[in-house]
Amino acid sequence: MTKLLRYLRPFTKGIVLVVLLTFVSGFADLSLPALMSNIIDKGVATGNTGYIFTMGALMLALALLGMAATIVVGYFAARISTGLGRDLRKGIFRKVEEFALAEFDTFGTSSLITRTTNDVQQLQMFLMMLLRVVIMAPILCVGGIIMTLAKSASLSLVVVVAVPFLIFMVMMIANRALPLSKSMQRKLDRVNMVMREKLTGIRVIKAFNNTEYEKGRFDEANKDLTQTTVKMQRTMALLMPAVMVILNFSTIGLMWFGGLRIQAGAMMVGDVMAVVQYVMQIMMSFVMMSMVFVMMPRASASAERIMEVIDSQITVTDPEQPRRAPEDVKGSVEFRHVTFSYPGAPEPVIKDISFATAKGETTAIIGSTGSGKSTIIKLIPRLYDVTEGEVLVDGINVRDYAQKDLRAKIGYIPQKAVLFSGTIRSNILSGKEDATEEDMRAAAILSQSMEFIEQKEEQFDSPIAQGGTNVSGGQKQRLSIARAAVREPEIYIFDDSFSALDFKTDAALRAALKKKTQDAAVIIVAQRISTIMDADRILVMDEGQLIGVGTHRELLNTCEIYREIASSQLTAEELA
Amino acid sequence: MSMRMGPGRHQASHYGKPKDFKGTLKRLLGYLKPYRVSLGVAILFILLATLFSILSPKVLGMATTELFSGFQRMATGGGIDFEAVGRILIVLGIIYLLSALFNYIQQYMIAGISQKTMYNLRKDVDEKLAKLPLNYFDTRTYGEILSRVTNDVDTVSTSFQQSISQLITSVATVIGILVMMLVISPWLSLIALITLPLSMLASMKVVKRSQGFFKGQQISIGELNGHVEEMYTGHEVIKLYGREKQVTEEFDKINDKLFDNAWKAQFCSSIIMPIIGFVGNLGYILVCVGGGVMVSAGMLPLGDIQAFIQYLRQFNQPISQTANIANIIQSTVAAAERIFEVLDEQEEVPDTDHPVKLTSVKGEVVFENVTFGYDKEHPLIKNLNFSVKPGQKIAIVGPTGAGKTTLVNLLMRFYDVDGGRILIDGVDIMDMTRDDLRDMFGMVLQDTWSFKGTIRENIRYGDLGQNDKNVVKAADAAYADHFIRTLPGGYEMILNEDASNISQGQKQLLTIARAVLSDPSILILDEATSSVDTRTELLIQKAMNKLTEGRTSFVIAHRLSTIRDADCILVLKDGDIIETGSHEELMAQGGFYKTLYNSQFAQPEAG
Known about the structure:
The structure holds 2 protein chains of 2 kinds. Chain A has helices at about 5-10, 10-45, 50-100, 100-105, 110-135, 135-150, 155-200, 200-205, 210-235, 240-265, 270-310, 375-380, 405-410, 425-430, 435-445, 450-455, 475-485, 505-515, 530, 550-560, 560-570, 570-575, and strands spanning about 335-340, 350-355, 360-365, 390-395, 395, 410-415, 420-425, 465, 490-495, 520-525, 535-540, 545-550. Chain A is α/β, with parallel strands linked by helices. In chain A, strand 9, helix 18 (about 505-515) and strand 10 (about 520-525) form a beta-alpha-beta unit. The radius of gyration of chain A is 36 Å and the shape is elongated. Chain B has helices at about 20-30, 35-75, 80-130, 135-140, 140-185, 185-235, 235-240, 245-295, 300-345, 405-410, 435-440, 455-460, 470-475, 480-485, 505-520, 535-550, 585-590, 590-600; strands spanning about 365-370, 380-390, 395, 420-425, 425-430, 440-445, 455, 495, 520-525, 550-555, 570-575, 575-580. In chain B, the strands form 3 sheets. Chain B has a 6-stranded mixed β-sheet, sandwiched between helices. In chain B, strands 2-1-4-5 form a 4-stranded antiparallel β-sheet, with no helix packed on it. Chain B has a two-stranded antiparallel sheet with strand order 7-8. In chain B, helix 8 (about 245-295) runs antiparallel to helix 9 (about 300-345). At the A-B interface, helix 2, helix 3, helix 4, helix 5 and helix 7 of A face helix 2, helix 3, helix 5, helix 6 and helix 7 of B. Chain A: It is a multi-pass membrane protein. Chain A: GO terms for molecular function: ABC-type oligopeptide transporter activity; ATP binding; ATP hydrolysis activity. Chain A: It comes from Zongyangia hominis. Chain A: Keywords: ATP-binding, Cell membrane, Membrane, Nucleotide-binding, Transmembrane, Transmembrane helix, Transport.
């Protein structure tokens, strides 16, 4: 949590001001009982009505001052806490935008979303509370103690006895409640998780008739949560009564010893009354401070989760002096003895891969699940960095490019098509912002998107909903191909991007691509042999190793695994 | 996922207003019914605790008066009557103790009652979801449903507990204090109460103003969440297309707008406290001055002023608390209303009263004039007829949207037909219970589903009664055993929440193992192999062939190569079967199937 302090630095002035103003309003609050005791001891006792009114006016002025100070505190507290929220969100978002896939994977999308939204909100509320309420507590507490001392040093002994008791009590309860509240949070998460699983798996649950079992699973989590919550709240229920008893008994002590002091002529009745009120104030301040205990565990967990994101190391960074490829070299990709392991994995996913592809050539990668096909192509735009060996684009190591320059050369179509809310136009143009209307149309035609775009009333300006939910999977995939095509990249990379298309579209698209990609390198990861059998070069992957390179014909003769794959998909006559 | 409730819900009180406040509140309180006795006892304790805490300032005041009169006697040589003071203080001590004790008891009880109530509410929601038709889930994003069953229940649960005891305490305290103040001095009461409407008026005005900002804040939060969600989901694409800068700029815009609305909303609501505080102080001062004058005039004992001041201090708090609780209750009721909406959703048509149960399933399936549409106005399937002999392997092919998945939905009774019948071994599936019907089927779905738990548990899900040995056997049959053994922990490896610690293909294999374990009479494979690579698919194919032996099976696949050996291929287009026959027959017919098939294996012209 302390790491967060640097985010508070821009607000130092405001925070100092808040503390000062809290002093002012605390002072005003604390003075009122003192003035009241003056009214009683000097005004009432002597029957001096004029004095009573003067003191009254003074009290009124102080009360106004207190209010003004508190309002200003409120203003700064609001600006500082929401400002911190804004800065944290900004910090997280910027950091996440820098993330390479490795960092992104370690957190997971949904966790990053909650960290950016909910966790920041938690902290924001905590700071607000801290500034508006909790800072006041020690001021009231210390002020109250000082005032008590000033009124009567001997009576303050009562406070001196009571406070350790109080602290002990609060600590003891907090000690028990904190772990419970943490475990409650975990159990709540579990209830939500089970519920989420049930919602996403509704068909499977119904298909296997496991409704009763699921009911039990939820009930278990629900019961567990309920029990812990009850336990926690019953522990917390002890707090207020215990604090009250201690403080109320100090009041009794004050009255008794105060009486003795009065009898001895050392004190006035009004002083005793004032002291009693100070003690009340001290009591209230402890109650306020105990609020921190309730909010602290959640806030510190949130702070930790936020700082994890902000402090995480970026694995893929730009070189200090980025290089650019010479103008005349285009569309070449080369792997030299590349080995890659995912962070934390004991075994590399791909081992010692070497191959090269040039302008106008199509390279296809095929192999079983987990064989490392997708990993290979992710290394080209530096979504990950190699563990060993090097990847070269246009003869230059990808690490020596500025990421922006490198990626500008590449049109990458991921396995899962992603569209952004906006229009069809904005989605295609996100491939190349300054593309002309003509270029955009050409890209749409190439990707076989025209037929469905033309069916829409608003054509290219048809809205795309968040996550592209208002177009079908195949349409999404085609638009994502259009987005790549519009940049006229030197290197096309298809990560199994044809699977969402039906056969007809698949074939038409490939035919169109073939014409378009004369000047570019094409790299395709595929499942269907038919998609890749005319490639210039087919790489066959198995368990992270490159076990065969060649054309369809060559591989049929030389590569056992390739033949296996081919024979599962093609008829004997097609194989011949 | 649309507008997440998430961070905004703490301010929900200023935003969501319930439609039917009274009815919903009544229904929510209905959940307390089973606990009415203990609730009654708890309320009694609340009242007792309040009574004692109201009495204490008066008693303390008596002690002060005793001290003051003793002080005055000192002038004439007398002194403080410590015996009297001691008596009063002992009574006071007992009152304090009892008040604390009763307070503890009531909070202890309320914690139990409110949490049990929430347990029941959650349980009700859960059980309701099990009874809802699939249509309910298909027409909503699960983020939307989730927000109701988790966030809303959470909101109700946290505020429920607070509000019950606070509301009763506050109301009782206000009434009690009012009585005490009037008893002590009607005049002082009048002075004190003058300030009351003032603070109410002021805070109402502020609340009204801040509402606009809160609404703006809520909208900004929704926008920000939407943007973040979208951009994080598309992270890979953003990196690939170098969109970081644009995306960040957009984020900053929304973020700044949120900040602008948020601080104004927070500031506005923070004004209320000092205003109420000031008005409270105003009353305090008036009482000090007025009381002081009255005491010096001999109209009032001094202790009463002290008592009065203490009452006054206590008076303002429950009033502002009540205002606060009113807000909380409103948001609670709004959340409860959303929960009740779920509870009131129309349930699945209940199973027939006299269900037929097939004892040994042969696996003959007949579609008879089946008509169905997700939207009743636009039937997707019209008068569909076909029959499947026991043990046959039926392949269903056709372009997207032709109705392939719909056939499965109807077979499994995820949806019920609008017209016609589906018969299994001559029995209308509407005459069976859903459980019995689904018991006959095993299915592997396009989207693999797993839950957080071990791999073993996830496979066993297919048939919870099976032992470990059979689980391994099933995994072996699905060619999953080998990869499972290479994973850390093997069968005991815990799949995380979205099973991202194994690959898509491996997930698929687990799903198949699950279906194998369930040993069904009829199999449904819904594009099951589309995300498994061809080599693994080959293995699965072998396993499936073994599995489909003697079982009726329906295979829906994109790749025509996988279904060439099907006994019968149904070619669907726009909800109609346009061709049927074996692969060879269909190829010979030279119709739509042939076009499809050829297009799959077509060579690009330029190649």
